[in-house]
Amino acid sequence: MTTEPPTGPDTAPGARQESPARPAPALSPASVPRPAAAAGGGLREELPEEVPASASPSTEEAPPERPGSDLSGRQRLVKGLWPPRITRAQLIVALLLFGLGFGLAVQVASNSEGDSALRGARQEDLVRILDELDDRTERLEDEKQGLEEQRAELENSSDQAEEARRQTLERERQLGILAGTVAAQGPGITLVVQDPKGMVESNMLLDAVQELRAAGAEAIQVNGVRVVAGTYLSDSGDGVSVDGNKITAPYRFKVIGKPQDLEPALNIPGGVVQTLEKEQATASVERSTKIVVDALRPAKQPGYARSSSQ
């Protein structure tokens, strides 16, 4: 008796039953084919196996290599700095900075030259210079105080017209002394310069006048010639000409001022006395409590200048 194979819903009638196949290897869940829609004949179509993401071909292209990427950091720095690329703005800024630096260098050099004389001075000389500055400051303060007192007297005086006239006369006398039109007397010094070799020149005597003025001299007379603000000295043969008046050695200076300031000003290192000694001349200074300066200068009327006060 022949036994027919059982039929099922999935087996087509009349189909030959296949012998059982060997068991297939286990598949991962990702590789198990998904069922598809049935096509005519009732047969199932299988989808191709999914390709793992790691094995999928990359669709992105690699970025192109940048030129010079194989250079080292130092080589890239050198390539960026050289050759230099200078713009007009950078050139203008460079020129301005150069000018500023040059000006600062010149200023520092000038200050250094001005300080070199004091830097090489002795302690005694520095103390003397400070004393002279203090004395000059004191004189200016006294002058300021005197002017303030005059103003106060004018403001508080009952007879302001008389007080103004008195102060005007006093001021005229002071200006006359400075202008050389009025004789003067007071404490001071006498400077005598002997020149047996005839080596003293006008510029040496001019240095003496300037040193005395800087030390506070108020009236100066040289061999009978009054020295004023406009005085000039020049060489004249075997002597010196002062405002056109020729004088010869010995040169005698009569100076009114504070003796304690005038004498040290002439004896400073490298000053008037040492300069004259280098020229084989001698200079002697004598203090006095009363010096008379009686040489006068004629008063000159200005040809063009007029007072602007009403």
TrEMBL record:
- Which one Pfam family would you cite for this protein? DUF881
* Chain spans, region Disordered: 1-74, 139-167
Transmembrane feature ranges: none
Fetch the InterPro entries from UniProt.
Answer: DUF881
Q: Where is the composition biased (Basic and acidic residues)?
A: 139-154
Q: Where is the composition biased (Low complexity)?
A: 18-38
Give coiled-coil spans as residue ranges.
Answer: none
**Signal sequence bounds:** none
| Similarity field | Belongs to the UPF0749 family.
Report what the protein is called.
DUF881 domain-containing protein
Query: What is the species of this protein?
Result: Streptomyces prasinus
Source taxonomy: Bacteria, Bacillati, Actinomycetota, Actinomycetes, Kitasatosporales
